[in-house]
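dumping this here before i forget
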Amino acid sequence: MRYKVTFVVGLALGYVLGTRAGRERYEQLRKSAQQLAQNPAVRNAAETAGQTGREFAGKAFTAVSHKVGDAVPDSLAGRVRGLRARAGGGADDDWGTSNT
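structure:
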């Protein structure tokens, strides 16, 4: 219950501060966020994190599939195979970045 109250208070505070800041501040924050997202260092970090996550997902799938055998649904198996292919193939991922 305490967390819900804290969340609601934070949400209300953010709304009040956001409405007082106005459209100019919103546009300034949006522009800053876009610049940050287009920063090469940030993009490389996101690519690395995505690739590492795909590798760990593949390893986890392999470990689980060895233990549960054929109980893994075909749809999940196909998705993991697709992720493995993208991780090693250098193709664009869901975020428009590439493994360069």
